[in-house]
Design a protein that fits this description.
Number of strands of chain B: 2
Largest sheet of chain B: 2 strands, antiparallel
CATH topology of the largest domain in chain A: Rossmann fold
Strand order of the largest sheet of chain A: 6-7-8-3-9-10
CATH superfamily of the largest domain in chain A: P-loop containing nucleotide triphosphate hydrolases
Number of helices of chain B: 13
Low-confidence stretches of chain A: none
Shape of chain B: globular
CATH topology of chain B: ABC transporter involved in vitamin B12 uptake, BtuC
Oligomer: heterodimer
Strand content of chain A: 15-25%
CATH class of chain B: Mainly Alpha
Order of helices and strands of chain A: EEEHEEHEHHHEHEHEEHH
Number of domains of chain A: 2
Mean pLDDT of chain A: 92
CATH architecture of chain B: Orthogonal Bundle
Distance between the termini of chain B: 19 Å
Distance between the termini of chain A: 41 Å
Strand order of the largest sheet of chain B: 1-2
CATH class of the largest domain in chain A: Alpha Beta
Structural class of chain A: alpha/beta
Shape of chain A: globular
């Protein structure tokens, strides 16, 4: 019951002489938002890449629902239940919004190797994709070419695609980046509810959002965990205040 | 501006009406020209899957075209000269049957594409272009030195291969065979583009991260596309050799690989009918301007330049407005 959904154990990654991530361990439990914060270059994105499989760890291991996924490829991890959103939108911009969403639904469905049936006529997957677009408020735009969306809408589409995957855990790399204050508020509200569907590992620079959402926070600096605790304790932690939050 | 579907229907109409007109007016040469265009179109439709949808530019598709040509040539040569091709495990004396030749061609082209693809798809961009070119050149030089099958002189096949119930030497009947194959290929390609595989391949061209993040194996997508692509182009090669009743190393030439790319660019990259339009225009220019001057490629070059500079979607991009993609 209290098994963590996602667990990273002693992850390390060096690039040449640069130690990007050193001995980082963290876990995410059910219904939880676990935020990772830290200054630029602290190793947040490297850590995310190690967990999602786009970077191979030098040491350490990653477990998803107690299954060791350390040596699996990105796509295997995705089909096992890691729903990732990217810091810089990775979308098929020449395709329509709906096509992007349905791609996620197909990927999660096991109908990946269909060669003959038009996918947009698959009512089950199409409904699923449209439902996820509706949840983030993009359904009215689903016939538009993705390239015509605003920056904020692209961020939301990233989230919608992650939703179509019905993942065991969401991993979101700065979902608020570039959203206006209204957009941030809306997304904060949305993620707050989303944690009941699946826990979220959240990398975010917007501290208001982080403290509004996170149950636990891990602070990284120079690739090391300098603190990892409940959100309320992190706020008071003097080391964190000095290294990152800034005194006063 | 018209809808893409209207333009496609118009092109289909041309493919049917021009040969009928030529048949009624006793112009077999026009029919042969149309057959040539149709075969080129099949080859380029195959390439378009890799180049247009998948986004990896193969500059070596003549390898498959030539392979198809030689499969046809070797099978038919053994059959016409009564020399056994294989003695073990079964005795096989070659064949003059088109359907059998096509099946063998498709299988061997797919196998060659799997081998070339597995090696070259490890690279991207200009390296991929060069490595596919290198494979095609290897095939070219191999064929020039393979004296058992004519070497540089190639192989002549005296009689066109047979198709049950048809007289294949009659230009219009051979045209019907080729055109039917083109329609079948276009039909399946049209379905493929809209299928889960097509959607994912199309997205993989735009963002590798995206398709991986939703659970697709990027390399498998590309390799599958490359194999299908090579098999279709190979089939076109077998038809082309049958059209000319002759196969030579020139079917492996890099100029031909380049021409396939040109068809696609003229017509419209990644568009279903792009390669068909490109091949029709190419063969028409080759015939009309080529009759005036040997240097007709200059004019082709000018057209290509104009299209690349002013209309990136090729002819289809110039003529058609963008359709909503969710229909």
């Amino acid at each position: 019951m209290n098994e963590p959904i996602l667990e990273a154990k002693k992850l390390c990654k060096t690039f040449g002489s640069l130690v990007a991530v050193q001995d980082v361990s963290l876990d995410i439990n059910k219904n939880e938002i676990h935020a990772i914060i830290g200054p630029n270059g602290a190793g947040k994105s490297t850590l995310i890449a190690q967990i999602c499989g786009s970077l191979i760890s030098d040491e350490g291991s990653v477990f998803l629902a107690s299954k060791n996924i350390t040596n699996l490829s990105t796509e295997k991890r995705a089909s096992l239940g890691i729903g990732r959103t990217f810091q810089i939108s990775a979308l098929a911009k020449e395709d329509s919004v709906l096509q992007n969403a349905i791609l996620g639904a197909v990927g999660a469905s096991g109908k990946r190797w269909g060669f003959f049936k038009p996918i947009l006529k698959d009512t089950v997957l199409r409904d699923q994709a449209e439902h996820c677009l509706e949840m983030v408020g993009l359904k009215d735009l689903m016939n538009q070419k993705t390239a015509t969306l605003s920056h904020g809408q692209l961020r939301l589409l990233e989230v919608a695609i992650a939703l179509t995957l019905k993942p065991k855990v969401f991993i979101m790399d700065e979902p608020m980046a570039g959203l206006g204050s209204d957009g941030t508020k809306q997304l904060t509200k949305f993620l707050d509810k989303l944690r009941e569907q699946a826990p979220i590992l959240l990398v975010e620079h917007d501290m208001d959002a982080v403290f509004a959402l996170a149950n636990r926070i891990t602070v990284l600096d120079y690739g090391r965990v300098i603190a990892s605790d409940k959100a309320s304790s992190i706020k008071k932690n003097p080391i964190v205040q000095k290294a990152y939050l800034g005194e006063g | 501006m018209i809808k893409e579907r209207q333009l496609n229907t118009f092109v289909l109409g041309l493919l049917i009406l021009i040969p009928i007109w030529a048949y009624l007016n006793d112009e077999p040469f026009i029919i042969t020209l149309m057959t040539r265009a149709v075969i080129f179109a099949i080859a380029a439709v195959g390439l378009n899957l890799a180049l247009g949808i998948g986004g990896f530019i193969s500059f070596g598709h003549a390898a498959f075209f030539g392979l198809g040509g030689y499969v046809m040539g070797i099978l038919a040569w053994h059959s016409q000269s009564y020399v056994t091709l294989i003695e073990w495990p079964i005795i096989f004396e070659g064949t003059k049957s088109m359907p059998l030749i096509w099946i063998i061609t498709i299988l061997l082209s797919a196998l060659l594409a799997a081998i070339i693809g597995m090696i070259s798809l490890k690279t991207t961009g200009v390296y991929f272009i060069m490595i596919t070119l290198a494979f095609a050149q290897m095939m070219y030089y191999f064929s020039t030195s393979w004296s058992a099958y004519g070497g540089e002189d190639g192989l002549s096949i005296y009689m066109r291969n047979s198709f049950p119930g048809l007289n294949t030497l009659d230009p219009i009947q051979f045209f019907i065979i080729c055109c039917t194959i083109l329609f079948i290929v276009l039909f399946f390609m049209g379905r493929l583009i809209k299928s889960p595989f097509g959607l994912a391949l199309n997205a993989s061209r735009q963002s590798r991260q995206r398709v991986e993040a939703v659970g697709f194996d990027f390399h498998k997508l590309q390799l599958t596309a490359f194999i299908l692509s090579g098999a279709i182009t190979g089939l076109a090669g077998a038809l082309f050799a049958d059209l000319n009743r002759f196969v030579s190393p020139s079917m492996f030439s890099w100029q031909l690989s380049g021409e396939f790319i040109v068809f696609i660019i003229i017509g419209g990259v990644g568009r279903l009918f792009g390669p068909v339009i490109g091949a029709l225009i190419f063969v028409w220019l080759e015939h009309s301007i080529g009759g005036i001057s040997d240097y007709w490629h200059i004019f082709l070059g000018l057209i290509l330049l104009a299209i690349v500079l002013f209309g990136k979607g090729g002819i289809i991009g110039l003529v058609c407005r963008e359709d909503t993609q969710n229909e």
